């Protein structure tokens, strides 16, 4: 591994940490946590079972279950029957959950515009392309025989 590769990995991890902190700050302005925001987001397109939501988020089922229960208690999400699996209900957003997610998305969009104003779109596109290639390589490595 070259020094540049090691520095890139360190920078990506540092950026991820800073973005997590910013996400917590953004979510807390709406009275939520970043974890609750992520679970609301993952079920915003379609209701999901807890295991499927956990896989999409790349976190443990137990963690998503705890957050989902919190969201249900707050009235931001609800469980509904799953016609495909009686023992694994679907998590879906409620109208208050949809409103909370819309407010968070709007707040995040404004924050991103401010945060990235000094970085030209071409640089953002190039950075995204590099990160997508890195993710493709990571996926290929994780999926290789003997790697899981």
Which residues sit in consecutive blocks of at least 5 with pLDDT less than 50? none
Helix content: 55-70%
**Order of strands across the biggest sheet?**
1-2
Q: State Rg.
A: 18 Å
- Overall pLDDT, averaged? 91
Count of distinct structural domains = 1
Task: Please give the CATH architecture.
Answer: Orthogonal Bundle
Structural class call reads: mainly alpha
Describe the model.
By secondary structure, this protein is mainly α. The protein has a single domain, classed as Winged helix-like DNA-binding domain superfamily/Winged helix DNA-binding domain (Arc Repressor Mutant, subunit A, Orthogonal Bundle). 68% of the residues lie in helices and 5% in strands. The chain contains 6 helices and 2 strands; from the N terminus they run ααααββαα. It has helices spanning 3-28, 34-42, 50-57, 61-73, 95-115, 121-143; strands at residues 77-80, 90-93. It has a two-stranded antiparallel ribbon. Helix 1 crosses helix 2, helix 2 (34-42) crosses helix 4 (61-73) and helix 3 packs across helix 4 (61-73). The longest helix is centred in the N-terminal third of the chain and has 26 residues, at 3-28. The chain starts with a helix and ends in a 5-residue tail after the last helix. The mean pLDDT is 91.
